[in-house]
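#dry-run=false #mode=assembly
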Amino acid sequence: MELVLSIGIGVLVASGVWLLLRPRTYQVIIGLSLLGYAVNLFIFSMGRLKTNAAPVVQGVDVVDPANFADPIPQALVLTAIVIGFATTALFLVVLLAARGFTGTDHVDGREPER
Amino acid sequence: MIPGPEHLVILPIVLPLLAGALLLFFNDQERVLKATVSIVTSIALLVISVMLIRVAHFDGTAENGRVVVYLLGNWPPPFAIVLVLDRLAAMMLLLTSVLAIPALIFSIGRWQKAGPHFHTLFLLLLMGLNGSFLTGDLFNLFVFFEVMLAASYGLVLHSSGPQRVRAGLHYIAINLAASLLFLIGVAMIYGVTGTLNMADLAVRIPRVSPESMMMLEAGAGILGIAFLIKAGMWPLAFWLPTTYTAAPAPVAAIMAIMSKVGVYVILRLSLLFFSEETVSAGFGTNALLLGGLATITFGAIGVLASQSLGRLAGFSVLVSSGTLLASLGLFEAGVTAGALLYLVSSTVAISAFFLLIELVERGQDQISNVLAVTVEAFGDEEVDEDFEEEVGVVIPGTLAILGISFGACALLLAGLPPLPGFVAKFVIIDAGMNPGGADGGSVISPSAWWLTAFLILSGLASLISMSRAGIRAFWAPVDAVVPRVLVTEILPIAALLVLTFAITVQAGPIMRYMQATADNLHDPRIYIESVIDAPRAVTPMRETTQ
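#status=ok
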């Protein structure tokens, strides 16, 4: 499971960074989204991976923390997803505005001279 | 029911949030109302932050000050989010509100009409700034950073236009990437230590096992890069001058403090996590010193090469950031105290400079516009003017005030007496040359020599290019058209500059405050103990702290 997750994060980051460095605004926003997914998975994995473990402790008895998943990274991921979604949406609007003003989807606002 | 000083701590966050939300209910046509509400809010913030400074500085002992801890949700301290007010946070709150009022008054004249929801965005930006200064929790810091950045995206794009949208596109892309680095760094630190509370982290980091230390330092390094992007350290700063130049004047004026938020967090976290007693004491100080020196160099070259005033101001931000980062890299309490004064004076100076540039360039634009139309039609008149020149030039009042303000900005940025830029640089150099106190007799480190040389040379570069720009703007144009300037536009600039003069006059008490702040930062035991031992409130609306 650890291997699958780390390969998944690695592939997402690699694709995200490559797309982020591309010259078209659409590629940049997809790259940022992929990087966002990778980071969310990474935060999640920082609470250690566990299967069939609930994050919520029930009952008042003395509990063994080893049987439970760490709830904090899950809460952090939730916040990060919301903020990431909002900023990506905002970026999309700016991207469309830039397209409208400059007539091109190049990140510099003009086509490179060949 | 008057809330005690404990509840004052939350007000710098709640007040702008409520006011900003309230303004959304009104149509953008109600400009008087909106401007009034936001200016009254920022004046209230000023009053609150002065009160908070009194609490943080005078309520406790002279040595330790008082650290007020506000438990949001009333959980016992290492858990949940806390707000922490100490001398540094109180100082940054005051600086924010001092910059906000002039920027808002300036915006009445012209900028608030240029697009929707100016005041709401501005107030939310203030909320994000204040929250970043007050929070004692690493992830909460991320949230307030995002509030601040989201508002700043809107403000940079305020009044739109191709240039702003293009600069905004780059600004947003870079900051989104930086936020992701922020998250990675926070997650790695959490993975090693299992906590996000800054004081608790400071307790646990010295106990981290050596094999995990590498991961922790990697996390801290990635986190640091995220803040250095905001602060504008050299290889990460190419977005900064373009964005600041493109932003509307009042926005650029308040953004002068946004680059200082990165410096603030680095100052706070590096001294808290890697204080003198820990194994990895002074982690990253070499990187800060070298990066700071590189930033000063890059900024100084940029300042010399700038043709327009806007870019000149943008690169001045870099020089200021570089000076601060390099000073922090020396890891000396005395140097940090000087750097804090430099932070205040350079931020106020750059803020005033951004406002001033808009007025000066307004005049220049009119010149070129008028020239294009009237050169032929009124050709004879120009000759007459040339003859009159020899008798003497009548300097109109507006131009004289603008010129004096420009000169004051130049003195501040170059660090010449009598303005506080000089005092701050003097303190930094003095403390660097006398490590361990005046009678310490310890060896002066080579890095102190380097810092001194770079400080003096960057001051020279600023002086050269400011004089050149000033001559070009005020003396060279023969038929200068006096820019039309409203009182509400020149008054904020004058107020900021008078304030800097007041800092020089009151340099003694202010420097004592800075020294106490720096001492507390370099010996963060009080901060840590106050947070860890903060008692919970017994019932709501009762005393929350000691």
